[in-house]
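Interim report, section 4.2 (structural modelling).
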Amino acid sequence: MKEIKLIEVKEGILSENDNKAETLRDELKKSKTFLLNLMSSPGSGKTSLILKTIDVLKDEFRIGVIEADIDSMVDAVSVTNHGAKAVQLKTGGFCHLDASMVEEGLQAINYERYDLLIIENVGNLVCPAEFDTGAVKKAMILSVPEGDDKPLKYPLMFSVCDVLVLNKVDYMELSDFDFQAMKNRVYKLNPEIKIIEVSCRTGQGIDEWGEWLRQEIKSFSCITLD
Amino acid sequence: MQTVLDLCLKHGEENQAEKIVSIHLKVSEFSDLQPEWMQRYFNHLSKGTMAEEAKLKIEKMPLVMQCNECGEEFRIFLSDKTPHCPDCLSKKYHYVSGKGYFLENLEVI
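Predicted structure of the assembly:
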């Protein structure tokens, strides 16, 4: 019987992706392009929030959108009709974007020409949480109809994001969504996360969201390169 | 899982292994991936490679936070209702370690 040998590896499984993401972040710093990774379940309002964001910030920043879907162009068409530039990445069955797919999107849209680029990730609360895309900040949307228990079911997503946008708050009174319970569950996983309540339908909270993003973009563009 | 397989094959080849017998992975306990399914995907992907039939040994990594007030490091659990620093009872803390996936070691012949 042959002898069994132990090989010590101690290597991050996603280290290749993480390195690529770091490289992208360095490039984005040079061109002062703020990249936001927007994640959520399907139907929670990613495209609606992006359209509202364009309305609020289009006079101050040059905005572009990198759309990712398994196989369709509908979101890119909506964004383009709204007056912002969009590129569509078809992930061809993949449930998330990784850094090398984002790199393709950045090149396709000519990222140096923009102050703000938003990645509309694939609608999914599981895999996108695992992959660093090179974004400066990560945002997620939870919508009221999805329920206040989502932080219990998808803890990783809630623990990696910088900001949580609670959308469809105009449905709150029609539902048994427990806002305080949801907040407690989220802060437990991520004590530093910012929570912003909005309704893309009525426009409630969109100014607060726009202001958060404006300040983040401004402080990012002030960072001096080391 | 393809990335896990690729990494194992790379290290197997570098060490001139004939066969990979077991693979020790560290996985965040906050990961949604279930060990049983990771093994099933791995079995499917590794057919015809030196890692075919390798057993995944999956160790869950605890999530560790550090208190902003007193600096104490502590573990938090998904089941904690109101997590706080066990030392000074502060509820202000930040992430230290316990996220991600790591390939620890391989047993090969």
